[in-house]
Design brief:
The complex is a heterodimer of chains A (486) and B (520). Chain A is of the alpha/beta class and 486 residues long. Chain A has a domain of 247 residues: Amidase signature (AS) enzymes (Alpha-Beta Complex), CATH 3.90.1300. Chain A is 38% helix and 13% strand. In chain A, strand 10 and strand 11 form a beta hairpin. In chain B, strand 6 and strand 7 form a beta hairpin. The chains are: A alpha/beta (486), B alpha+beta (520).
Chain lengths: 486, 520
């Protein structure tokens, strides 16, 4: 059952071979045992989960079940969830019980899924290793001395350790794809605007996008069917016809043109990652795809551009955490400014403070044009590069992360090294393009390698098809870390 | 040394909408604190703004009414600063590309505010959200925050420094206030803060090209304070300069009790607001269709109406309006060239100014004239500006709450015109109508109180004869050439008839009879 697909679990529930309550109890049991070591969850609430499971069982019994009704799903603790502690990985919100549901949570509730818990994450989604969480780092189940990636590290770890069949995440510069790669699971960040940001605590509004993490492309498709949908409360939400993201899974890949950006295969990528990615490309060639070399000349600018724009937006987005209406407030203070200063000094961790400072700096009078405006111009150039490349191919491939999972603490004292973890993922975020990562073998230390797949706007169904066809001939995605305890 | 005072205004006017500019919460004034603050207004984690379409339409309507350019797209920007009643830690406003750019407002200045026309140019008008309120009383050393006002839609209207006296500034503010009410985009309620002015004041030697250093007076919520604050501030600046001092740029507050301004913060302490485009809101596009639709709904503007009211000649009026349309490209407006020959009122500039001070007054006046007939337009104007306005002004009320409707007033005036009652009796009847007596119909009151004017010549002759017999001394005085005795005798006739006799008839008959006695 642990390795069952969402479709299989759904079939078991429909055939009443297992109830949602039983399924929920089983996964909760695993969570409770494994979480002590992996720290993938910030909050579990057995009673609330079981309540949802009972509702799901009623839905199934009365024949009104949806494809995912009754299936336990974990939610990144960035999604506001009514009645649940919603911390965003921060001390600032360590006592914040959300009075409302994010749009994504509403949609899962309507679909009848069971919320099995809120997953750990880098504080306010700022980090690539899950080490900035106020609740402590998440461990990579493939090697507990290494990081799971971030910021959706808790969700990726939970799926990898089979603590949950699938989970939600969010991706600003790689926060779904990079942890998926490092934990050997599949994850997709859809086109910007497809998943509503309402109730998803903002990091960098023009980049933030919710998406699923699961074991396979087929599972991702079913998750996307729930997550994607127009929401009038998010002005950047796109009004489009509802799609079935699973509709093209079985299409053959003959004639597909896969572009390999030469810049992705230059310096920076470690040899073990390179080997795995090359092998995956060979498989695609065998599946009938044509491989073409393409160029994204401005992609090398994506990290500097990203680290101007994302902190700029974050510095403003995080201003609401001032200790006035909710969230952490210092116990003692002299006056208003002192209250702000102490509450924020105590409530935010080092990485969040660093990004608020960077963002405040680049927006300041006299620096705005040189940093913010310049970065916006480069952002357009980066997007134009992709537009050119998509004239030559339908899909772009490369590595998701330059290395396999690195050791806990290895990069936490060197922010620049840490920021380079997003070197392959940030460009698609800046362009608003969909990107995904699927397992493509193992590198040094038997740690997973992720294959990065970028498609054109709204090509999620095709990307899932491309990933699914690979997962029909390769079994990397079914491999599990060696977990003996549970 | 002669000094020139230079003033530019920034006016925050609250737009009339049911819900807030970025949330669905109600904008009704005076609710229980925080009862009208929803998740978006409180700035809970994860919430997002959604722009209110009506607020946008109101802003466009203003732009069209002042002949401005409507920018499409315009951009919402975040103005970042910390304050407890600013829940997000930033205000959503517009910075580089406002929705309304340019335009102008024509004001009437000089004696009685109708001597000459002056154009005040507008720099821009942009949409933004209001902040909440900090309440410092009743909380024993703490501060209470009421976020009911947070997110209320505002249009900030910025003028060029085109005004040269506090009087001009007040006239501009009043004209603007009247305009926003006139076109229905704001209730202009100053007590509730729906119309607040900041004044940028500087002085320079008359003839200098360069503007002096300005100081900005914040948050003036009455025309009187605006005038007092500018008078104090300009006087202060002149005395500083005359004593060899320098003006330092600053933001100041006006103390209404002491009638003084005090520095709130100097330029050195100015915030760096770190404006940047709000990534939660897309650039605001306004279609030509929407602009056309709003133009069609535009009422005849106050200045046009003013010209129509004073027109003595249709062609001249048309010419004036054509000239206006250089400024106001509103030919598509439904009110464009609203005129017929039979509607010539030929009012004085003073009357027209008074009647076009607000739209409801002008509408009321025209409703009266429509019934009474335009050849008595002046009489109608006198009544609206005189009796009606006087009673309303006692309570600072607008004409919309007048207990005497335009139709009622028109019927009363008709009775004056047809000689049923005298003007004096009419005023008494109006008083009765105001207080709702006798079903408040002029005819009912005339009948029930027996106030019909005695204009029957035979009856007046009889009454005059009685008065002449009863007052032989005055009659002989008159015959001796004491003209004053005539007025006494008129008064006696009116007294006997309790004022109901037609004064014209009484004059005529008395004159005739006395003449006969004198020469008889």
């Amino acid at each position: 059952m642990l390795n069952s697909s969402l479709k299989q679990l759904s079939a078991l529930l429909a055939a009443k071979k297992v109830s949602s309550v039983e399924l929920t109890r089983e996964f909760l049991r695993r969570v409770k045992v494994l979480n002590q070591e992996y720290n993938a969850f910030i909050t579990i609430n057995e009673e609330m989960s079981l309540d949802q499971a009972r509702t799901a069982d009623t839905m199934i019994a009365s024949g009104v079940a949806c494809p995912l009704t009754g299936i336990p799903i974990a939610h990144k603790d960035i999604f506001c969830t009514k009645g649940w502690l919603t911390t965003c990985g921060s001390k600032m919100l360590s006592s914040f019980i959300s009075p409302y549901d994010a749009h994504v949570i509403e949609r899962f509730n309507l679909a009848g899924t069971v919320n099995i818990g809120k997953t750990n994450m880098d504080e306010f989604a700022m980090g690539s290793s899950n080490e900035t969480s106020f609740y402590g780092p998440v461990k990579n189940p493939w090697d507990i001395t290494t990081v799971p990636g971030g910021s959706s590290g808790g969700s990726a770890c939970a799926v990898a350790a089979r603590m949950v069949p699938a989970a939600t995440g969010t991706d600003t510069g790689g926060s779904i794809r990079q942890p998926a790669a490092l934990c050997g699971v599949s994850g997709i960040k859809p086109t910007y605007g497809l998943v509503s940001r309402y109730g998803m605590i903002a990091f960098a509004s023009s980049l933030d996008q919710g998406g699923p993490i699961a074991k396979s492309a087929a599972d991702l498709a079913l998750m996307l069917n729930v997550m994607v949908g127009f929401d009038a409360r998010d002005s950047t939400s796109l009004l489009r016809d509802q799609e079935d993201y699973a509709r093209d899974l079985e299409k053959p890949l003959e004639g597909l043109r896969i572009g390999l950006p030469k810049e992705y295969f230059a310096e920076g990528m470690s040899e073990d990652v390179s080997r795995a990615v090359d092998a995956a490309i060979v498989e695609y060639n065998k599946l009938g795809a044509k491989i073409v070399e393409v160029s994204l000349p401005n992609t090398k600018l994506s990290i500097p551009v990203y680290y101007v724009l994302a902190p700029a937006e974050a510095s403003s987005n995080l201003s609401r955490f001032d200790g006035v209406r909710y969230g952490h407030r210092a116990l003692e203070y002299a006056d208003l400014n002192d209250m702000y200063q102490k509450s924020r000094t105590q409530g935010f961790g080092a990485e969040v403070k660093r990004r608020i400072l960077i963002g405040t700096y680049v927006l300041s009078h006299g620096y705005y044009d040189a940093y913010y405006i310049k970065a916006q111009k480069l952002r357009r150039l980066i997007a134009q590069d992709f537009a050119e490349v998509f004239k030559q191919c339908e899909i772009i491939m490369g590595p998701t992360s330059p290395t396999v999972a690195f050791a806990l603490g290895e990069k936490s004292s060197d922010p620049l090294q840490m920021y380079l973890s997003d070197t392959y993922t940030a460009a698609a975020s800046l362009a608003g393009l969909p990107g995904m990562s699927i397992p493509a073998g193992f590198g040094n230390g038997n740690r997973p390698v992720g294959l990065h797949i970028i498609g054109n706007y709204f090509s999620e169904a095709q990307m899932l098809n491309v990933a699914h066809q690979y997962q029909q001939v390769m079994d990397w995605h079914t491999q599990m870390p060696d977990i003996t305890k549970a | 040394m002669t000094w020139e005072i230079v003033i530019g205004l920034e006016v925050h006017t609250q737009l009339l909408t049911q819900s807030k500019i970025f949330s669905g919460a109600s904008t009704v004034f005076g609710g229980t604190p925080n009862a009208q603050a929803c998740a978006v207004d409180i700035a809970l984690p994860g919430v997002l703004p959604v722009l209110n379409r009506v607020a946008v339409e109101r802003a466009v309507k203003f732009g069209l009414a002042v002949g401005a350019k409507i920018n499409s797209p315009s951009i919402f920007a975040r103005k970042n600063y910390f304050y407890p009643d600013l829940p997000k830690g930033y205000q959503i406003s517009q910075y580089e590309l406002p929705i309304v750019e340019g335009g102008c407002i024509k004001i009437l200045t000089g004696r009685d505010n109708n001597e000459r026309e002056k154009i005040v140019r507008l720099t821009r008008a942009h949409l933004e959200e209001d902040a909440g309120k900090s309440l410092h009383e009743d909380f024993h050393g703490m501060t209470g925050i009421d976020l009911n006002r947070a997110g209320t839609p505002l249009l900030e209207i910025v003028s060029e420094p085109d005004m040269r006296s506090s009087m001009e500034a007040v006239t501009f503010a009043k004209t603007l206030h009247s305009l926003v009410r006139w076109i229905g985009i704001s209730d202009g309620n100053m007590e509730e803060g729906s119309f607040r002015c900041d004044a940028n004041v500087s002085v320079r030697r008359l003839g200098d090209d360069k503007l002096g250093t300005r100081r900005e007076i914040k948050n003036l919520n009455s025309f009187r304070f605006l005038q007092q604050a500018i008078d104090y501030e300009s006087g202060l600046q002149i005395s500083i300069l005359e004593n060899g001092g320098k003006i330092r740029q600053a933001t100041v507050l006006f103390d209404a009790d002491k009638r003084e301004t005090h520095v709130m913060r100097s330029k050195e302490d100015a915030h760096d607001y770190r404006y940047f485009p709000d990534p939660d809101l897309l650039p605001l596009e306004i279609s030509q269709d929407l602009i056309n639709e709003i133009m069609k709904s535009m009422p005849e503007l106050p200045m046009w109406r003013y010209y129509r009211f004073i027109a003595r000649d249709v062609d001249k009026y048309k010419l004036l309006i054509e000239k206006q349309t250089d400024i106001y490209p509103l030919q598509q407006s439904s009110a464009y060239l609203k005129f017929g020959v039979e509607e010539i009122y030929a009012l004085s500039k003073y009357d027209a100014t008074m009647l076009t001070a607000d739209k409801s007054t002008a509408d009321y006046f025209e409703e009266v004239v429509e019934i009474v007939g335009s050849k008595n337009a002046k009489l109608c104007a006198n009544w609206v500006i005189g009796e009606v306005a006087a009673r309303l002004n006692q309570n600072n009320e607008y004409i919309t709450i007048s207990p005497v409707s335009a139709k009622q007033l028109a019927e009363l005036i008709l009775r004056i015109c047809d000689g049923t009652i005298s003007g004096k009796i009419a005023k008494d009847i109006f008083g009765a109508m105001w207080h709702g007596e006798h079903g408040s119909s002029a005819d009912t009151i005339i009948e029930e109180k027996g106030l019909r004017q005695i204009s029957n010549s035979d009856e007046i002759r009889r009454l005059v004869d009685v008065v002449l017999i009863d007052n032989p001394h005055q009659v002989s005085d008159f015959c001796k050439g004491k003209e004053k005795a005539f007025n006494f005798l008129v008064g006696q006739v009116m007294k006997v008839t309790k004022g109901k006799a037609s004064p014209a008839k009484v004059n005529e008959i008395l004159q005739e009879k006395l003449d006969r006695k004198k020469h008889g």
